[in-house]
């Protein structure tokens, strides 16, 4: 079982995402009010808190949303979750993993400063199967695991 440690959104593409306490996830769309929401396979991006903390320990001054992530999740090594897996979180939200990592077409500011960026290899993407409200601090768990039957 994991915990949603952060929710971040941005109103326009190419801008830094900012933390919010809660968000509404819309089926087949993504996070309401986020620029990356839409009818495509990368509606919601997730990044593990543990990898962000490791990156900070290397001297990176990164705040929530700096990598363009929507959800900061503690408790899962996300890059090892297979495509097609489903996460349940918050008030009935269901997310289906659609992509592991991404290609970085142009090096971001974090890469220019640090010589590295974790989102392309540690981040995952999902689409919203069932919408609902998600809050920072909500539990998140993989479908078909023991956590689901609690």
TrEMBL record:
GO MF, one example: pyridoxal phosphate binding
Cited InterPro entries: MoCF_Sase_C (IPR005302), MOSC_domain (IPR052716), Pyrv_Knase-like_insert_dom_sf (IPR011037)
Record domain MOSC: where: 18-143
Gene3D superfamilies documented for this protein: PK beta-barrel domain-like
Coiled coil regions, renumbered to chain: none
UniProt superkingdom: Bacteria
Protein's recorded name: MOSC domain-containing protein
Species name: Candidatus Merdiplasma excrementigallinarum
